[in-house]
Amino acid sequence: MQFPSPVSTQWIASFIDAKIIGNNTSNATGINEIHKVETGDLVFVDHPKYYDTCINSAATFIIINKELEAPEGKTLLVVENPFEAYCKIVNHFRPFEAADKMISNTVVIGKDSIVYPAVFIGHHVTIGKNCTIYPHVTILDHCILGDNVIIQSGSIIGSNAFYYNTKKDREVWYKKMPDCGRVIIEDDVEIGASCTIDRGVSHDTIIGKGSKLDNMIHIGHDTVIGKNCLIAAQVGIAGATTLEEGVTLWGQVGVNKTLTIGANAVVFAQSGVPGNLEGNKVYFGTPAVEAREKQKELVWIKRIPELWDKVMGK
Amino acid sequence: MQFPSPVSTQWIASFIDAKIIGNNTSNATGINEIHKVETGDLVFVDHPKYYDTCINSAATFIIINKELEAPEGKTLLVVENPFEAYCKIVNHFRPFEAADKMISNTVVIGKDSIVYPAVFIGHHVTIGKNCTIYPHVTILDHCILGDNVIIQSGSIIGSNAFYYNTKKDREVWYKKMPDCGRVIIEDDVEIGASCTIDRGVSHDTIIGKGSKLDNMIHIGHDTVIGKNCLIAAQVGIAGATTLEEGVTLWGQVGVNKTLTIGANAVVFAQSGVPGNLEGNKVYFGTPAVEAREKQKELVWIKRIPELWDKVMGK
Amino acid sequence: MQFPSPVSTQWIASFIDAKIIGNNTSNATGINEIHKVETGDLVFVDHPKYYDTCINSAATFIIINKELEAPEGKTLLVVENPFEAYCKIVNHFRPFEAADKMISNTVVIGKDSIVYPAVFIGHHVTIGKNCTIYPHVTILDHCILGDNVIIQSGSIIGSNAFYYNTKKDREVWYKKMPDCGRVIIEDDVEIGASCTIDRGVSHDTIIGKGSKLDNMIHIGHDTVIGKNCLIAAQVGIAGATTLEEGVTLWGQVGVNKTLTIGANAVVFAQSGVPGNLEGNKVYFGTPAVEAREKQKELVWIKRIPELWDKVMGK
Fold first, then answer.
1. Lower Cβ count inside 10 Å, N or C end of chain B?
2. Closest CA to C252 of C270, C267, C237
């Protein structure tokens, strides 16, 4: 999330009661979790295992629970509980706004767009021209829809990320990260019935122009779907993953987090994608490999009894 | 879709600005996409690969983008863009009707049926006797429910088909087919929570008498489920597939499009069905094979290390 | 289900027109289906295959369609159709209550809890303090939510069990069991968007304190999820299963009914769990085995061609 305007180191340090180490003259331009961090951003880290990664990330400001040396030009903000400090900043810049009606007064809806009855649209949502929003759709705060977008019944745009701060030495192991990202749905996208598109934790979840999603598809936080992708029913894509342009995923495919599927790749039904896939190829299986390789493997498995007989001299 | 009354060749040709080749005296009785086409129907084709299939299908009228010879008694309607012509006809006979309330005035609901609050029911829907429709259900235009039907919360009846006209040489690759089919749910059917039953593209999606669906089941367009089928949670069935009577699908099964599963077949959980399955058998695996065959295969796989040792003389 | 107060043998026998065999002086304290039966309960059995199991279960009262000997202290209630008798009792003690508004007057909602617009809450529901219930959530009758619970949009709490009385010699094979169980969601639980949590058939479905569920998760009737479990998107868990504390299930996992997954077990994405799993281990595959075993198996499969070549002397 970008801040509405740059925020001084002093203001932040005072707001979260932090000790400043390093540069104390620069201004923060936003806040992001580690996967989406940019120059000028605040980030937080509370586990020694990730200290190096965060300090050496693109972030300019690191909220941390240990006094370490700050790299040139960077600022460490030392607090006892960096997670709580992060939450406090996010909640300050993205405060909860109660909803008391089905469509917020702050919603902007373009010409010739049709909104059926029983649609909930939260605050600061923008919907383009010539869209159709079917009954029982939920579009939560700050989401943006382009032109000619269709959202079928029961779909949820902008649900919270499944993203927790984990500490197994306390009674409640998983504490919710407040999320300040959005969902951006570009022009000519169709979202089928009963899909869930989670908002970014701190950045944006994006569905690219012309992509078509069937029913019951889950798209995780901060995931970016390229243009003209085709995604069949019951596919699930975890967080912060990228599909390049023209990717096709058939039904019930599962895709792991923080990976990339290359342009025009095709993944057959029920496959599980654990890591990056090159574009312009066809994949199958759990874990997904090139489909022709998988087909050969299936044939080889059927030949084991024959092989056994040969070895046994039958 | 059947037309309300037969439509003359001349009217159609004039409406879509087509050149007539062949029989110019007959009347069209309906319009269907290629998988569901019947005698008297209009169909369209815009790719040379499918010219023969469409011209030789049951259709009497073929909207096409090439001047070819018409078989005896058939009519070719030559236009530049057959897909657009098809859409124009469908939209004419099945025009969009805006919904301004949760339950349309045109809905017919039978005796002793219970409709909870927060249910959306579109135009021209018929619901039989003694049904229960739970909160947040969506039943879209033209769907038909029999008697003693239960639709649990959040289910969507009559969502649009996932069916597109594809051309990868234009900016938006996938263009939506307007669908004019319906969903027909027969007597004594139960649909669990958060299911999606897509309407037919041009024909009907049917759930047969006495069938029971668990939660989060996706049924594709034009699919026909027989009587007394039992379908467990999170199953997905693609378009234009047929389940004969008494089929059982366990949880998370995926079924491909345009295939048939024979009567009383049982498919174990998480299986993937790529092609036809004979009835009265039990199946397992992706791709699904007879379960006892799959079980043997799993045992053989576990014996590979033993086989390796034998070959290596250990 | 416990009865509001104990019910005499005579009242029950008269209500369902049963012949009493055995003890005719005790009082029934509740009614349960066989998986959840307790001392003092009524249970029913209508198939000779299950007579022994039911008569020797914890149940004190057995509604049965055969005159058999009653064990010491137990009561057989002989009727022609035990299923219908069971339904009659359940429906008497848990009668259908029509809903005429989005939030029943009988709902109790704790301090600082936020209920968005378009939420349906049925009769006799209790919601604790500091909860957030997002738009288009459905919470059906008799469910109980603790404090700090978040239910994201479109989720259904308390849908009916997928549980039928099956007889293939009648026209409609599957007849619905009326369910009288509840869903209990403990403190600090988060339920993602578009989940479905079925109520118990006769007992309770429980989501333990601090557990976090991602989107589109299906939890079957009478299933008990322990504390601090983490369940990723599109997981399905069948009925009457138990997850002990700290279990992690990754995306699209399927879990069979009436089994137990031990504390702190981790099951990788898309796995299928057919039977009990020991705690403190990591699992993968369909059927799920220890992950390192499965990984070895995948390597062995890739070595079949090499093995073939060795045997063939290439």
1. C
2. C270
Q: What is the pTM of this model?
A: 0.96
Residues of C in contact with B307 (CB under 8 A): 307
> In this structure, are B270 and B126 located in the same domain?
yes
* pLDDT over 90 at A151, yes or no: yes
Interface A–C counts its CB contacts (< 8 A) at 131
Q: Is residue C114 over pLDDT 90?
A: yes
Q: Are residues A277 and A161 in the same domain?
A: yes
Chains that touch C (3 or more CB pairs under 8 A): A, B
Q: Given C168, C254, C297, which is nearest B301 (Cβ)? A: C297
Cβ–Cβ gap A233/B238 under 8 Å: yes
B304 belongs to a structural domain: no
Contact C20, C11 (CB under 8 A): no
The answer to whether residue C221 is catalytic is yes
Which residues of C fall within a CB distance of 8 Å from A138? 118, 134-136, 153-154, 193
pLDDT in tens, B265-296: 999 999 999 999 999 999 999 999 999 999 99
What are the distances in angstroms from CA A6 to CA A1, A11, A23, A98, A182?
12, 11, 16, 27, 20
The pLDDT assigned to B35 comes to 87
pLDDT at residue number C312: 85
- CA–CA dist C2, C145 (Å, integer): 19
Other residues' Cβ atoms within 10 Å of the Cβ of residue B125: 23
Establish if C313 belongs to a structural domain. no
- Smallest CA–CA distance, residue C32 to chain B, in Å, is 21
Extract the tokens encoding C304.
């079949």
User: C280 with C137, same domain?
Assistant: yes
Domain that holds residue C176: 108-294
Q: Give the whole-number percent of chain C exceeding pLDDT 90.
A: 96
- Residue A100: exposure state from Cβ atoms within 10 A (0-12, 13-18, ≥19): exposed
Cβ contact (<8 Å) for C307 and B307? yes
Q: Structural domain tally of chain C?
A: 2
Most A CBs within 10 A among C191, C214, C248, C302, hence the mutation to make, goes to C214
Query: What's the whole-number mean pLDDT along residues C167-186?
Result: 95
Residues C136 and C56 in one domain: no
Q: CATH number for the domain including B239? A: 2.160.10.10
Are both B51 and B117 inside the same structural domain? no
B313 falls within a domain: no
ipTM of the complex: 0.95
Specify if C98 maps to a domain. Answer: no
The fraction of chain A above a pLDDT of 90, given in percent, is 96
B216: which chain C residues are within 8 Å (Cβ-Cβ)?
196, 216, 218, 236
Q: Determine the pLDDT at residue C313.
A: 82
